[in-house]
Amino acid sequence: MGYVIAELEEVHRENQALLANTVTCDHLGSRLPLLPQLNPYAVLVFDIVLLIIVIIGALWSRRRLRGELRELWALAAQLGYTTQQVRAIAETAYPQFKYGLIDWDQSRGATPQFFPSRRVLVILKQRLATTLETNNL
Questions:
Q1: Distance CA 61, CA 63 (A)
Q2: What is the mean pLDDT of each run of 10 residues along the chain (137 residues)?
Q3: What's the CA gap between 97 and 36, in Å, rounded?
Q4: What is the pTM of this model?
Q5: Is residue 56 domain-resident?
């Protein structure tokens, strides 16, 4: 029995030593230990790296969408479709996404101001490509 008590006291001392190296939430009414305080410079570096990754990802995504829009409007031009016809095909292909005629007009050109969903672009490109293939046969 004395051995068990000695073991428990040893574990208690180890826990107290661990708690001394952690920050607690006393002001929240909780004694749960939090992670030890991190070096503020490490947190700053991590935030900067994360920000750079997010910016690069957004630029890459925008460039990819711009290329897909270029392909879409090239297919539409080959078929002789107007913006109204492309909009009608988009609404039948993907009824959840209802973009207006002005939105589709703003997605044209070298620097589009509007970017529809990538799902809509992929479906539209597939439909226009199959229409072009059937017209060429």
A1: 5
A2: 72 70 54 59 87 96 94 94 93 86 92 91 93 86
A3: 47
A4: 0.63
A5: no
